[in-house]
């Protein structure tokens, strides 16, 4: 989902 | 992973290494704000709780551990290492950093994507990271002689934020549904805080003079 994509960042 | 993000992460890593080099090798933390370092330790401790709940990649987990470990060891060094602690500019580093923590916590409770424990803490870490550099910038302004390593540390940190913005622009155009307003706005605020510093840093570099911020 889209909010998971932000959390792959540091 | 795109080139901007990798460059951003490496710049962030370089900033931490520069700071550790100064503290570990030269045994000095002159010009370094303990308040900012404590805020970063809180930022990473609250953001990286997902180490226990989700796995993205070995790279992701390793980097998280590096940033957690380095931020806490810098704080411990500055507080408890005899020689390092003696070089700490305690009288100058007077920013009330707890006054940043509470508003960020309240804002995270009000503005978030999902109202869950981890999500609110994650959002809090984004807001707090945006303003965590403030005590350091104030201390730089008060310090007469900013040494090269301290200047480079702040320059690299600002560079890391700038590269993350390029990374978001890239991801917005290459990944469908990549829209994250909370991350973007707090990231933009954070980068703008460095604008003034960048200006004086480039001036001192251009004129080959020692970096000094106007009071």
Automatic annotation (TrEMBL), chain B:
Q: Which GO terms describe its molecular function?
A: ER retention sequence binding
What the record says about family reads: Belongs to the ERD2 family.
Coiled coil located at which positions?
none
| Broad class of the protein's primary localization | endoplasmic reticulum
User: Where found, per UniProt?
Assistant: Endoplasmic reticulum membrane
What Pfam families does its record include? ER_lumen_recept
PANTHER family, alphabetically? ER LUMEN PROTEIN RETAINING RECEPTOR
Q: Which UniProt keywords apply?
A: Endoplasmic reticulum, ER-Golgi transport, Membrane, Protein transport, Receptor, Transmembrane, Transmembrane helix, Transport
A cellular component term, taken from the record's GO annotations: endoplasmic reticulum membrane
Q: How does it sit in the membrane?
A: Multi-pass membrane protein
Q: Provide the protein name.
A: ER lumen protein-retaining receptor
Q: Where are the transmembrane segments?
A: 55-77, 98-115, 121-140, 152-170, 182-201
> What PROSITE patterns does this protein map onto?
ER_LUMEN_RECEPTOR_1 (PS00951), ER_LUMEN_RECEPTOR_2 (PS00952)
Query: Tell me, which GO biological process terms does this entry list?
Result: protein retention in ER lumen; protein transport; vesicle-mediated transport
Q: Which organism is it from?
A: Capsella rubella
Supply the InterPro entries for this chain.
ER_ret_rcpt
